[in-house]
Amino acid sequence: MKVLIIGAARSGTQAALLLAAHHHAVTLTDMKQIDAKRELEEAGVQVLDHGHPEFLKMENWDLIVKNPGIPYQAPFVQYFVEKQARIVNEIEVASWFTDQFAYAAVTGTNGKTTTTTLLAELLQRKRPNARAAGNIGVPLSEIVREQGDQKTDIALEVAAFQLVAMEKFHPVVSVCMNLTPDHLDYFGSLEAYYEAKMLVWKNQRGDDWFLINLDDPEIVRRCADLPCRGVTFSLNQPADLCVRQDLVWLFDQPLFALSDLHLPGKHNLQNAMVAAAMAVKMGVSADQIRAGIQAFKGVEHRIEFVAEIQGARYYNDSKGTNVDATCVALKAFDKPVILLAGGYDKKTGFEGLKPVLERIKTMIVYGETRAQLKALRPDAIVVETMQEAVDRAHQLAGEGDIVLLSPVCASWDQFTDYEQRGRQFKAQVHALAAQSAASQTSQPD
Predict the structure, then answer these.
(1) What is the model's pTM?
(2) Are the beta carbons of 268 and 114 closer than 8 angstroms?
(3) pLDDT exceeds cutoff 70 at 445
(4) What Rg, from alpha-carbon coordinates, does the chain have?
(5) Is the CB of residue 397 less than 8 Å from the CB of residue 389?
(6) pLDDT of amino acid 443
(7) Angle at CA of residue 248, ends 105 and 122, nearest 5°
């Protein structure tokens, strides 16, 4: 098979190595420099970086593998769309080489990463080589290259970008956690984005499960014609998966007690409920689930406690890249917070923040969207960068205050991704904590 991979990054590189190992003729092209060029070429991959040569359009490709982050409207990709070329993504390709793998797929606007991370930890209690993969940052192709001949359970985080380029990918159990406006810059309309999310169940069948969030009417109305078994869940009403008498129940089986979960907020309870139910479908016992829930410490960049400085507590929610995520983060605290917000504009607007503005004591805005956020909260303090926002928050924060980075926006105006943003925030907070500690110890009695 003659394959063109558009976009290297980690997933494109791993897909190229996997396909080359299975004796396919692979060409990998990227607008930027490809750091793994030597390894790829030694594996037999043709590598073309620093641009997409025009001659690639003249070749007869059996398959195009596109990086999910590259829009279909990008001129080079659009050419192949108009030619009706076969275009898939890295997860789809990797799944072709995994007869021994069983998949639990997690999508939705928010909660994906926490649910996927916890689910992987629960699956590892049944099968130690179980892994988390996909949009969480680990390409499925990488795991296939490492353990493709082993029986393996995979907790797979799947973004809408990835779902639109799936052909045969088949999870045993899947969920769409929720649907709220996001990524309109990519999909063009809310309906297109929502429909992309619901593709997670399109190849399921028979006894496979799709978990239906009864608390989300957008999801409920899209589940009339499921090809598999629908298993309902709710925080607020009777469902197959719900809370009764301080226990989480799936059908007639208790899975864990509310006191077993150590993460704050109802959203984390929902994440844990879903992960536990998916683990049941994947063969994890109730005892293993309970032990896994008790041991779970949370996810980096998701309402992550960083440090306490002179009585003020600092939290990193850099993964809060949309209105709904930031609303959830604000609701996790029982007092008003000093909120740091701003970043790349995904064209989704910020009106949805209005119901939670009362939860904000002081708002410090920065980045590309600072003027829009200032219009929403006129008393907001405006700075240029996140670093300046942290310094300003440190000046303002007093005993008992909460300082929360939950940007409401993507990071791409000033950072490569939300992880870089979150780690820079944590480094700056830790530096401030060290300075504070040093000044305290240097003061005379």
Answers:
(1) 0.77
(2) yes
(3) no
(4) 23
(5) no
(6) 60
(7) 40
| pLDDT score of 192 more than 80 | yes
Structural fold of domain 304-442: Protein-Tyrosine Phosphatase; Chain A (3.90.190)
> Which residues are known binding-site members for ATP?
108-114
Give CATH for domain 94-295.
Answer: 3.40.1190.10
Token pair of 72, please?
Answer: 């279909």
What amino acid is encoded at 268 in this protein? N
47 pLDDT higher than 80:
yes
Q: Which residues of 95-105 are buried (b: 16+ CB within 10 A; e: fewer)?
A: bebbeebbbbb
CATH 3.90.190.20 region(s) of the chain?
304-442
Which of these, 128, 157, 119, lies nearest to 255 by C-alpha position?
119
Provide the residue type at 338 as one letter: I
How many Å apart are CA 430 and CA 207, to the nearest integer?
Answer: 49
Q: Is the pLDDT of residue 137 over 90?
A: no
**Structure-block tokens of residue 254:** 């208790």
> Which of residues 147 and 181 earns the better pLDDT score?
147
**What does the pLDDT average to over 267-296?**
96
The CA–CA distances, whole Å, from 215 to 110, 113, 114, 219, 236 equal 14, 20, 19, 9, 7
> What are the residue ranges of CATH 3.40.50.720 in the chain?
2-88
DSSP state of 198: G
- Residue stretches of the annotated binding site: 108-114
**291, 113 in Cβ contact below 8 A?**
no
Amino acid at 132: A
Q: 171-185, 274-288, 289-303 — which is least confidently predicted?
A: 171-185
DSSP state of 158: -
Looking at domain 2-88, what is its CATH homologous superfamily?
NAD(P)-binding Rossmann-like Domain (3.40.50.720)
Residues 238-257: pLDDT tens digits?
999 999 999 999 999 999 99
CA distance 412 to 21: 34
Euclidean distance between CA atoms 388 and 366, whole angstroms: 8
